[in-house]
Amino acid sequence: MLSWKRTYAIDFALLLDALFIIQCHVICAVIALGLVPVMLFRRKGDQLHKVIGRIWVVAMGLTAISSFGIMDIRLIGPFSPIHRLSLLTLYSLTGAVIQACAGKIEVHKRHILGAMGGLVGAFIFTALPGRLMSRVLFPNVEVIGFIALLVLGGVGFVLWRIKFRHVI
C-alpha cells in the first residue's frame, strides 16, 4: 500500500532538474500567482497597493519574457500558441502602468484583470497532464490534480466575476 506522502507529495526534484529559464519562469509565475488574491481582495490605491502592484508587474513581465525561452511545444516555428498569451500579457502590463500613471484607474483595472486572467489561464495550460508542472504538482495523480485545479479555477472565476462584474 502506498503512503499518502509518497503518492501525493509535490516533486520539486523535477523542477530542480529543469532548465534554468524554466526555473526562473516558474519562480516569477509563482510570485505573481501568489499576489493575485492579495491584489484582488485588499484595499486599492494606498502605498502598499502600489508596492505590491509593482512587484506583481515585474514578476508578470519576467514570467512573460522568460516564456520565450521555453520552446517545448513548437507549433508556429519555435513558438506555441501560449506565446501569444505572453505578448498579450506584456501589452496588458504596459497598458496598466500607463493608465495608472495617467490616473485612468478603470482602464488600469481592466488591463490588470486581463493580465491576471492570462496568468491563471496559462497556469491551467501548464498543469495539463503530461506537462512538467503537472508532474511536479500532481505526481501519480495528474488527471485528478488537473480536475481539482479546474474546479478551483472555476470557483475562483465565479468569485472574480461576482466581485468585478461592474468593471468588465
Explain what this protein looks like in three dimensions.
The chain is mostly helical and 168 residues long. It contains 8 helices and no strands. It has one domain (15-164). Helix 5 (82-101) packs antiparallel against helix 6 (105-126). The model has no long low-confidence stretch (mean pLDDT 83).
Let me know the average pLDDT. 83
Tell me the radius of gyration.
17 Å
List the secondary-structure elements in sequence, H or E.
HHHHHHHH
- Taken together, the total number of domains comes to 1
Strand content: under 5%
Q: Biggest β-sheet, characterized?
A: none
Separation of termini? Answer: 50 Å
Broad shape? globular
Q: Which regions are unreliable across 5 or more consecutive residues at pLDDT < 50?
A: none
Number of strands: 0
What structural category do the secondary elements indicate? mainly alpha
Key attributes of the depicted protein:
8 helices
How do the strands and helices of this protein lay out in sequence?
Elements: H1 4-8, H2 12-16, H3 20-41, H4 47-67, H5 82-101, H6 105-126, H7 132-137, H8 142-164
Helix pairs in contact: 3-4, 3-6, 4-5, 5-6
Quick overview:
By secondary structure, the chain is mostly helical. The chain is built from 8 helices and no strands.
